[in-house]
Structures are given as structure tokens and as C-alpha cells.
Amino acid sequence: MRALQTAATGMAAQELNVQTISNNIANLRTTGFKRQQAQFQDLLYENLRRAGSSTSDQGTVLPAGLSIGSGVKTVATPRDMSQGNLTSTGKPYDVAIRGEGYFRIRMPDGSAAYTRDGSFSLDAQGQLVTQNGYLVEPGITVPQNATSVSISSQGLVQATLPGQTAPQNLGTIQLSRFINKTGLNSAGDNLFTETAASGQPVDGNPGQDGFGNLQQSYLEEANVNAVTEISGLIAAQRAYEMNSKVITAADQMLSSTSQMFRG
Question: Which residue ranges does the record assign to the Flagellar hook protein FlgE/F/G-like D1 domain (predicted)?
């Protein structure tokens, strides 16, 4: 019976939906995390009587067809790249982006990765790095004797040194934008990488040409709404249960048919 296979595709789809929701909830407190949402499409149909086909030699046609669907499939789990709330941390090297853009990170193999997680710190050489020690580009090196460091909304990094009244410019933190943000590849560790779908990065300074501003001593929270996720989880659970009931009903119908033949 086709209903068994059709309902099984529904259960598989909702199982993946629950997995997506569980990942969102698990990353509720992950800095810069962007939630995902499962998207579905119906599978192919078997057309037993096609709508519009001729029903007589006088030109009459079927007003509605007879087609049987074969279930559902998951086609994508795109990320919602909307802005998360900003929260104060009081740490001088924490930086949040308010608006468009990603921090560009140099990976150990020399490739580039991108992130919204601005929880930076200094390494042994005074370079600005991520929590995993990856260099933030373009490289910013803070002198060891710096008494304070400021990061402006336009990305300018300045340090105050002993015996100097004017702060010293250390460089500018740049941002990168993509024409299709949802096309970025999630690489883990709060990092994204470029793909053919995302397009090539466009680099620029914060506050210019559509780039967002920076905010020192703040971090961007995950854009996960706990109430929305729990509502989606309940709906997915109900859909899964209904598909399982379809399988139970189809199995009982097959059992009744089998008993009729045996009788």
C-alpha cells in the first residue's frame, strides 16, 4: 500500500525538522549563531487522469485530474541571517557588528573564513585573534605596554601608550559582505566559508557602503527565539504522530484485506 511509504517520508521529514530545531535550541547561547529552518517540497505525482485531457470526441475535457502523491522531501535548511540582540560584556576586545557584515578570519591553512562572533582576545604576540587562536584580518597588533585600547564604530583601533597624550593608530578592522548570505557554508566554530552560492566577498570599512557599525565591549547573541522553537517542536511532533497513525491505519487495512483472502 502506497500510504505506508508516503507516511514514512513524512516521518523522515519531521525527524529532520526536529533535528534542526534541536540544534537551534542547543545553540541558544552561542555567540553570533544564526538559526536554521527546514523547508520541504512534495514529491512526484502519478497522474492517473490528467486535468484537461479529452473525455469525448465532442471536445469535453476533465475539469480536475486524478493524481496520487508520493510524499514529502526536505530540500533545504537555510539560515536566518537577521541581527541578534547585542549584550554588554565589559571586555575591551569583544566587538559586535550592528548591521551588515562579517569579520574576516585567517585560518591556519591560509584560507579565509567569516564570522559574526566578535569574542576576540590577544595572543602571545599581541595579535587580535579568535577564541581558537585564528588571526582577525587585517592583522591588528597591540603593544605590550598599551594601557588601554579603543575600537571605534568605524573599526579604527587605537592604543594609549605610557608617556603619550595622543593615542596610537593600530589599524582598522574591516568587514566582508556577501550578495547571498544564506549561501554561506557553516564550518563550525561559529565560522562560515564562501561558496559558489554565496558569491565572492566584498570587503570594506564599517559604517561605509552598506556595512554595519562596530560596538566595542558588546557581543551579538544568537537570533534564536525559544518560544518560536518550542512551538515548532510541538508542531513537528504532532505531524510525526499523525504520519505514524497513517502507517498504523494502513497496516490494519492491509491486515483486514489479508484476512479476507484467507477466509
Answer: 96-159
Q: How many angstroms separate the CA atoms of 97 and 119, rounded?
A: 11
| Helix 2-26 / helix 226-262 crossing angle, nearest 10 deg | 160
34 belongs to a structural domain? no
- Cα angle, residue 101 at apex, residues 95 and 102 outer, rounded to 5°: 60
Q: What are phi and psi of 205, to 5 degrees?
A: -90, 145
As a residue count, the chain comes to 263
CA dist list (Å): 215 to 104, 116, 149, 233, 249: 16, 12, 13, 34, 58
CA 50 from chain centre, in angstroms, equals 40
Q: How many domains does the chain have?
A: 2
Domain that holds residue 257: 2-28+39-76+225-262
Q: Are 59 and 26 in contact (CB under 8 A)?
A: no
pLDDT in tens, 201-251: 999 999 998 899 999 999 999 999 999 999 999 999 999 999 999 988 887
pTM for the model stands at 0.86
Write out the three cell numbers for 169.
593608530
Q: Are residues 173 and 209 in the same domain?
A: yes
Indicate if 115 and 53 belong to the same structural domain. no
Cell of 198: 554565496
Which residues are CB-contacts of 214 (< 8 A; sequence separation ≥ 6)?
A: 95, 96, 97, 98, 118, 151, 152, 153, 154, 155, 173, 206
